[in-house]
Amino acid sequence: MQVTTVTTAPIEGQKPGTSGLRKKTRTFMEPHFLENFVQSIWNGIGGVEGRTLVLGGDGRYFNERAAQVILRMAAASGAAKVIVGQNAILSTPAASNMIRKRGAFGGIIMSASHNPGGIDEDFGVKYNTANGGPAPEGVTGKIFEATKTITEYRIVEAADVDLSTVGETTLAGMEIEVVDPVADYAELMESLFDFDAIRALFAGGFTMRFDAMHAVTGPYATEILVNRLGAPAETVMNAVPSPDFGGGHPDPNPIWAKPLVDLVMSQDGPDFAAASDGDGDRNMILGKGIYITPSDSLAVLAANAHHAPAYADGLKGVARSMPTSGALDRVAAARGLDCYETPTGWKFFGNLLDDGRATLCGEESAGTGADHVREKDGLWAVLLWLNVLAGSGKSVQALMAAHWAEYGRNYYSRHDYEGVDAEAAAGLMDHVRGQFATLPGTVIEGLTVESADEFAYDDPVDGSRSEGQGLRIGFAGGSRIVIRLSGTGTVGATIRVYLELVETDPAAMDRDPQEALAAVIAAAETIAQIRARTGRDAPDVIT
Ligand code: G16
């Protein structure tokens, strides 16, 4: 088989964002775009000769075509082996597990996560390192540098590899192993949780709905919840993955998973409900009549993880991204656990997990996970919740009420302004930065500003420093505003405004979050002039 060396030139805009390179699918389909980026990954990581890689994606439009290109490029650059999910499918946590379990050098995950899929929507490519986690900034920086100097790429001319059947084959001397995408992951979950207790919960009539949102978790949820845990088949909704996620937006939040939210809020709704996203790493948790914010979910899981066998001996520590609420910190303080605050992006948890400093991590953006893999893990979070419900014998509402009574409640909400003009967004950020020196000590909407700064992170393990990680305004009493620009969007800029208020009065635990946060929301408007600068009179998404 022939290896072709194709002459190319750098293509603008190949800088990896919060989690890999995400672009419009049509951009990825333009001549050389995918090939340039894949060759730049190889160049950035020091080549793939003699190395084993894992490959899989969330099944969105262009997934299998991209997989065929990546296989031919891995073969052309001398990779020893690629382990690929059947039909090029692997959820993000399953890919992370596969890299770790097989001792692979790294892996490529094809996904734009919660972004919609289809020829007119989004596609993405991410490189994960040997620990199974997203490449840290040091590595993505080298990949980006390589995209700016690329002059050629290597690719094998060959017919498509059959990825529909589990088994082994070769391509230009490179081994290809097509694996069942679900089996190893399901086995891992079974090793962490008390499946007997969860099985007994379902057998006792406990009802649940899991919305796979026509995305990658359908087969995983069906295997684990229905086949292994005995939940009725109707437990898994929208279980068949489709290349455009059924035309939907596979983001598990109250906006995009509204039918599920409506169901649990109804009179005859299930006891428990959850949803996951395009590539299976995010989760949303609901109980009958109650929506749990990701920040609260993380805190409650940290406080109750001991119900699961894997965490029965306690946690080594916990970590959250900076914009995530401080609910976790209250649990950590009460339990004497170290609590780390990292920038947005799962990659920042990798060192803490590898170094044994943290067991549980989470983010406000619907991400929760632990040290079993190096990605956030949607189904894992759902199973830990089930294990906690089974172990505690409490309903979701009762569990939350007890939690807030013990630790206080961090009212929390995120307001997103999507597709904003990039210059206007940058101007808004500069406007807020410009007030840092004068804000402390002032009173805005009845709130006294205590601090105003831009978050920078010094990694305690490798000493690296990451700057420009979000603007923070702290108020007396622990309330807070955080403003940052998303690193995952593909059109214009998305401004995220994170709002938080700490409530310790036991009589005030049942307020509507938007009402409880009214003064903080008004203060954000006063400080950032969001309406005037974006031309919007309301956020596009409120979570
Ligand atoms: C990715 C990252 C997360 C991050 C989220 C939102 O999630 O893995 O760590 O919190 O993006 O990032 P941003 O606020 O920059 O848009 P996913 O699920 O998209 O891979």
UniProtKB/TrEMBL annotation:
Statement: the UniProt record of this protein carries the keyword DNA-binding: no
Cofactor(s) the protein needs: Mg(2+)
Residue ranges occupied by any Alpha-D-phosphohexomutase alpha/beta/alpha domain in the UniProt entry: 14-153, 184-286, 295-407
GO biological process, one term: carbohydrate metabolic process
Keyword terms, alphabetized: Isomerase, Magnesium, Metal-binding, Phosphoprotein
Location of region: Disordered: 1-22
PROSITE patterns, alphabetized: PGM_PMM (PS00710)
Reactions catalysed, as given in the entry: alpha-D-glucose 1-phosphate = alpha-D-glucose 6-phosphate
InterPro entries with a match to the protein in the record: A-D-PHexomutase_a/b/a-I, A-D-PHexomutase_a/b/a-I/II/III, A-D-PHexomutase_a/b/a-II, A-D-PHexomutase_a/b/a-III, A-D-PHexomutase_C_sf, A-D-PHexomutase_CS, Alpha-D-phosphohexomutase_SF, PGM
Database matches in PANTHER family: PHOSPHOGLUCOMUTASE, PHOSPHOHEXOMUTASE FAMILY MEMBER
Protein name: phosphoglucomutase (alpha-D-glucose-1,6-bisphosphate-dependent)
